[in-house]
Design a protein that fits this description.
Chain lengths: 321, 268
């Protein structure tokens, strides 16, 4: 399996009645990383997961391969190595432990193995002391953890987590994502995570894809994708407390396209990276005391928001025409 | 098809419904009324009825076809016919009712509560899923029918033997009924409900469709069970075997037409 793509999708389309959910999805995912599929509600993230896990049929596709097997044709070879968490529910009247060992049994695990593994996972998620309580008494966050533990019960090579941080407080979400990153690093597992919450994804994902208009409109490492969508080169100039920046003077410098203020600092957009060294020298020579002058790389969140707003504008234009 | 996966599915359902009194209460109380109150009422009542009233009671039943009772008193004939034939229909209504409720709860109910989808991502095969779900309704239904049968046997032996003058129950017909016909009818009913459940969105609609469409048809057939028993245990057993063959065909067809996509998308 190593070296081979964990997931390979070319030209995947799927609609529901008249509504197209996916028009043409292309995706390549090497094994061993954490992939984040980003997109707003209704973008088709869950539909993508369901097609890749063989519970929804594609309308058409050139290639849908998961772990080296064709989907949906060879799905029975794939399922034993895949764990899935979608917005499904747990058995409320059963304990967390029973919920997990039941899924262990569905994966054909011997009872003792399932029990041991369930115990490990519940401990890892901080639920060991509540393991024997019915899930009906759990909070939303605890249920979410059990659902994810359930996806991991059979030690799968590939794990799909569909909006795993939905309903979790930021701390719990961070903890969960850290756990996912550790698992993928230590055990070489591949994660396929969907989310519309960007902050968590940027630090954990080795690769992201942005789903819009039924297509993956950008994919690559978070920095690549951010750079691709936000190509401007920017420099942040942070003044010392009490110091006043002369924005007009900054705007007049050679190679500067525009200047805007952000949280007390000035963000200078420049034509090219080559212009930066000269610019830094000139800014340093200005009268205002400075704390820092540094290049401001685009964040994934910024890129995502920009992509979404261009898509909206595009959609409005299409509607208007 | 892995036996331990099927067992896990059935055991999980059992544990779940055992914890739910709303599901189990009607399923247990109503049958107990059938198998205790009716026979006790009739057998105690017989003591106070005149022979004419009793004769009117089994007028329509071809008593001559039952050689075992030709020498009995009117009361004795009534006690025998009622306990060995008339009440037998209860023992098909009990598993039918119970299997309907349990199967609708376990399949349509799981769909409605969004727990079924999780199973569809696991290596469980369609056959394992369908057979496991069917067993999870059939096993308790048959087991409970047998418990009722034990209670009923005691009641009949205590209250009917004095009229008949000897120990006669269970008759061979009843062994065929309990060991062959009750299980095969349970499987048949459950399979029908699972088929319906895979195609509707909620437990309520599965239960209603089962209640208004499946149950009447089954009950209509059940009404004939007395007549079938009059044919004697051997022919009655043939009916059970035919039903068993039907069960196998029905289950195969359900597995063949089972579609995971239909389960995850409520739009169909
Ligand atoms: N079972 C379904 N029936 C009808 N439409 C559906 C169904 N599942 C998804 N859709 C539609 O497909 C689109 C994508 O949905 P989904 O994949 O759930 O998006 P996401 O997970 O990104 O929020 C939405 O417009 C949604 O309404
Ligand atoms: Mg979704």
């Amino acid at each position: 399996m190593n070296g081979e793509a964990a997931i390979e999708v070319v030209g995947l389309a799927r609609s529901f009645g008249e509504t197209p959910a996916l028009t043409s999805v292309d995706l390549v995912l090497e094994s061993g990383g954490v992939f984040g599929l980003l997109g707003p509600n209704g973008a088709g993230k869950t539909t993508t997961v369901r097609v890749l896990t063989g519970v929804l049929r594609p309308d058409s596709a050139q290639t849908v391969r998961v772990l080296g097997y064709d989907v949906p044709g060879d799905i029975e070879h794939i399922r034993p190595s895949v764990g899935v968490q979608t917005d499904t529910a747990l058995y409320e009247r059963l304990t967390a432990l029973d919920n997990l060992t039941f899924f262990g049994a569905l994966y054909g695990m011997p009872k003792a193995d399932a029990l041991r593994r369930a115990g490990e996972l519940l401990t890892r998620f901080g639920l060991a002391d509540r393991a024997a309580e019915k899930v009906g008494t759990y909070s939303k966050g605890m249920r979410q953890k059990v659902l994810i533990a359930r996806a991991l019960i059979a030690n799968p090579d590939l794990v799909f987590l569909d909006e795993p941080t939905a309903g979790l407080d930021p701390e719990a979400a961070h903890e969960l994502m850290t756990y996912v990153r550790d698992l993928s690093r230590e055990r070489g597992k591949t994660f396929f995570i969907t989310s519309h919450r960007l902050e968590e994804m940027e630090s954990v994902c080795t690769k992201v894809g942005v789903l819009a208009d039924g297509r993956v409109v950008a994919q690559g490492s978070p920095t690549q994708v951010a750079r691709e969508i936000v190509p401007e080169i920017r420099v942040r100039v942070a003044p010392a407390p009490g110091a006043q920046l002369d924005l007009e003077a900054l705007g007049a410098l050679a190679g500067v396209v525009r200047v805007r203020q952000d949280d007390g600092s000035a963000i200078i957009e420049v034509l090219a990276r080559d212009a930066i060294p000269t610019l830094v020298r000139q800014i340093a020579a200005m009268p205002a005391d400075l704390l820092a002058v540094a290049e401001e790389p685009p964040t994934l969140e910024e890129a995502y928001l920009r992509l979404m707003s261009t898509n909206e504008k595009h959609a409005e234009e299409v509607d208007a025409a | 098809m892995k036996a331990n996966v099927i067992r896990a599915i059935a055991a999980k359902d059992l544990r779940e419904s055992a914890g739910s009194s709303q599901v189990l209460a009607p399923v247990i109380i109503v049958p107990l009324v059938f198998v205790v109150l009716y026979p006790v009422g009739l057998l105690v009542g017989l003591r106070y009825m005149s022979s004419a009233d009793v004769r009117a009671f089994f007028e329509k039943i071809p008593v001559d076809l039952v050689p075992a009772i030709s020498g009995l008193s009117t009361q004795g004939k009534a006690a025998y016919v009622a306990t060995a034939f008339l009440f037998s229909a209860f023992f098909l209504i009990i598993p039918t009712m119970m299997a309907t409720i349990l199967a609708a709860n376990s399949f349509a109910g799981e769909k409605e509560r969004h727990t079924l989808e999780g199973m569809l991502y696991t290596p469980v095969s369609d056959t394992e899923l369908v057979v496991g779900k069917i067993l999870s309704a059939v096993v308790p239904s048959v087991a409970f029918s047998w418990v009722c049968f034990v209670i009923y046997t005691i009641i009949v032996n205590v209250l009917a033997n004095p009229f008949v003058g000897r120990q006669f129950f269970p008759t061979p017909n009843w062994w065929v009924l309990m060991l062959l016909v009750v299980p095969t009818v349970s499987v048949f009913v459950t399979a029908c409900v699972v088929w319906v459940s895979a195609r509707v969105a909620t437990y309520q609609s599965a239960n209603s469709i089962a209640g208004f469409v499946v149950l009447p048809i089954v009950l209509l057939v059940l009404g004939q069970v007395n007549g079938l028993m009059l044919l004697g245990p051997a022919l009655f057993a043939v009916v059970g075997v035919v039903l068993g063959a039907l069960d196998v065909l029905l289950m195969r067809w359900i597995v063949k037409t089972f579609d995971r996509e239909r389960v995850v998308s409520s739009f169909l």
